[in-house]
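Student:
Attend to each token:
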Amino acid sequence: MKKLLSLSALILVTTLTGCAVNLPYNNRLNYTSISELSALPKVQDTVYIKWNPETFPQRIDIQGSDGFVGGGTRTRIPTGVALSSRIEEAIAQIAKLSSNGSPLTITVEKARSGFEYTAGILNRAPAIDVADVTLVATFEYKEQKWTNTFNSKLKDPKMGGSSQTGLLDKAWDDIAVQVTKDVSKHLGNN
């Protein structure tokens, strides 16, 4: 009886803790985003991007999905890695980046990458079919300081999802483009 209770407890704990899911992410801007940014006016300033907290570019969140399917998973979502690398690449399309440039401090107030998996028994690999990314950041450049909220919510119309992570990658690209357009307005004022 004691062994049966121990076995039952082990099965219950394993079921409740979920399983780890590692998905293949891309940490570069897509070509469409780079093309869109190339149409923006170039800024003469040389900029150095300083992240606050300093660890944001290495941040990986471990979370479950927002939906019913995969809510108990322990999915590794590289929110800080994906956003910081894309934002830096996007800003590099409008300004020269250099460690001895004028500091552009980006203080991350909130960064969240919400997602939902495709529902279905026949899915061989988890596919994200809803991506909901939010970034709230305060920017400081020379004498300017401003805070803005950036959102991207995307839904894949294809049943079963188009790719495992493509929708979340696209939402991160969208946030990077929004941030760069906003920063461009402020850098152009100097």
